[in-house]
Amino acid sequence: MANIQVLDQITIDKIAAGEVIERPASIVKELVENAIDAGATAVTVEIKDGGISFIRITDNGCGIPREEVALAFLRHSTSKIRTVEDLTTVASLGFRGEALSSIAAIAQVELITKTKDALLGTRYVIEGGVEKKIEDAGAKDGSTFLIHNIFFNTPARRKFLKTAMTEASHVNELMIRLALSHPEVSFEFIINNQSKLHTPGNGKLKDVIYQLFGREVAMNLLEIDEAFAGIKITGYVGKPLISRGNRNYENYYINGRYVKSNIIAKAIEDAYKDFTMQHKYPFTVLHFVMDGNDLDVNVHPTKMELRFSRQQDVYNFVYQAIKNALSEQELIPRVEVPEARMSEVKTPAVIQNVAKAEHVVTTPVRPQMSEQSVKLQEKNLDYFMKKMQERVTSYHSQMSQAEVKDVREVHREKEQADRIREAVNYNKPTVFEQPKMHEEQLDLFKEKLLSKESIIEHKIIGQVFDTYWLVEFNEQLYIIDQHAAHERVLYEKTLQGMKERDYTSQYLSPPIILNLSMQEEEVLKEHMDTFAGIGFEIEPFGEASYAVRAIPDNLFGIAKKELLIEMLDSLVEGIHSSVAPDMIAERVASMSCKAAVKGNSRLSSAEVEVLIGELLQLDNPYHCPHGRPTIIAMTKRELEKKFKRIV
Length: 647
What we know:
The chain is α+β, with helices and mostly antiparallel strands. Helix 17 packs antiparallel against helix 18 (about 585-590). Mean pLDDT is about 75; it is low at about 80-90, about 340-370, about 400-405, about 420-445 and about 575-580. It has an 8-stranded mixed β-sheet with strand order 5-4-3-6-2-1-7-8. Strands 9-10-13-11-12 form a 5-stranded mixed β-sheet, with helices on both faces. It folds into 4 domains: about 10-200, Histidine kinase-like ATPase, C-terminal domain (Heat Shock Protein 90, 2-Layer Sandwich), CATH 3.30.565; about 215-330, 2-Layer Sandwich (Ribosomal Protein S5, domain 2), CATH 3.30.230; about 340-425, no CATH class; about 450-645, formyl-coa transferase, domain 3.
C-alpha cells in the first residue's frame, strides 16, 4: 500500500475544478453570473470553436480593484458572504468563491478590469493556476475575461468534450436561460463572429420572450402575478396551443437563479394535465421570490438544485396559480383557412380562354416551364394587360350615369387580369401549394360562449360525420367533438361526486381478482381507506391477491382487471411523492372516461343539448382529460371570405 501524503495545491485545484467546470458552458455560466452580481447592465459573450479554444466575456459592471485581482483567483475567496450564517440569506448568484480558481486551474486566462474611480485598468494573466503577469492597462469600466484552450493541461478531460457545434448549443441554451432570468440586463451572444442573440435589457420579460422565441409564442402567453405566505410568483405561462414535446421550455427561476426542482416541475405539469395532450409539456417562464431561510441552494456545486423547507406549500401555491390562469381564459382554438392564392389553383384554362378573347395565343402554365415558355407567357400577358388597360381607359372616357354598371364589369375584368398575372411567376416555375391550417387561441370574446347566460342563445345546427356537432353563437361557428366533450363531462362529474361523497357502489359477481406486486400491494394498503371512501370494496384473497367485490357505480361495465392494475401502477409511480392532490380520485375519474360516447355514434338532438349544456358549465370545458380539444371555432368572417362575400 502506498504511503498517505498531502496533495500539492495545483492538483487540489484541478480536482476541485472538475466539480465546477464540466464544459465551456460551465465557464460562461460562472463568469456571466459574476458579471450580474457586479451590477452589469450589458454583457457580451463571444465564443469560437464551441468555446473550447476561445471565450470572451465583457461586462460594464463595477470591475475589480487592482489590489484584489490576484486574490479573486484564490480558492474560497468571495465578496458575497463572510460567515456561515450568510449562507441562509445569500441572494447573489455566485458565492462559493471557487469559480475563478477552478477556471484558472484548467485554462489560460486573461483578465482586463477597471473600476469607475480608477485612472487605469489592470491586466492579469494566469495559466493552469500559475500567475504569469499583472500590469497596468487601458480599459473601459467593467471586466473582460478571455479564456483560451480549456483543459489544455488535463487532456484526459478534454477528450470528453463533444463537437464544437454541440458545445456551442449548450452555451446557447445557457444564454437563453440567463436572458430570461434577468430581463433588465442586455445580453449579446456571438458565435464565430456571428451574433445569435441580443436582448433589449429594458426589464420587460415579454420582450425578451418575443426576441428569443418569436411572435407566435409571445402572442399566446398568460400572465401570472400571485403572492402567498412569503412567496411571490410572476411571469408567463403558455396557452396549451404552444405546448412542446419536451421539458426544455419549462423555465423557472428562484431569486434570479435558474434552478431545477421536482416539486415545481410536478406542480406545473399537474396544473396543465387537463389542458395538454399526453407527452406534451408547457411553455413557462416563472420568477419566484422567497426568503432565503425557506430554501437551501447549497446542495450541488452548480447551485442548480435546491431544497424547500415548505414543499407542500410551494407545490399547492404553484399548482393553484397556474390552474387559475388557465381556467380564466376561454381557450378555444380558432381554425383559420388562409385564402388560396392563384398559384395554388390550376389556371391554364383560364389564361387560355381570356387570351382567346383578345386573339392572343398562349402556352399553358405547367409545374415545370422552360425559359422560352416563361418569356412567351411574359410577352403574351404584357400584351393582354395592355389591351385590358386600353379598354378601361376607353370606358372611362365615355362614362355616363347609365354606364356605371358596365364600368364595374370592366373593373372586375381588370381584377381578374391582375389575378392571372399573379399566377405566372416570371423567374421560376409555378408551384401548386397546399393550403395550411392556422390556429390561435380565442380569449377576447365580448360575449363568451362558455357562460351560463349565453347558453340560451346557442343554436345547435346539427351533426356531421356522426362525431362532430355544429353550434352557432355570436357570429362564430363552434365545432364540438362529442367523444371528447362526453369524456370531460364524465371526468368532472365523477371527480365532483367523489369530493362531495355523492356516489353509490355496484357489487360485482364474480369479483375481480388482482394479483399484485410488492409495490402495488404496499400502495393499495396505504390508500385502502381512500378506495373504500369512494365506493370500492376490496379485501385480501390470499397471499398477494385481492378481491374487488364492489366498485363506484359509474365504473360498472368498464372496470376491468387491466384498468384497475393500470390505476395502481400510476399510484406506484407517485409513491414517494407527498404532494399529489387527490390522485386516487383523479385516476378513478379518468377511468370513467372509458364510458364516454364514441365517435361515429349518432345522438339525438335532445341528448346533444344536454351534453353541450353540461359541458359549457364545467370549470374546464376546453379539453378532454387527455388534453385533446373539445371545441374549435371558425368565425363568420372567415366563411364570408371563403365564399368571396368580402375581400
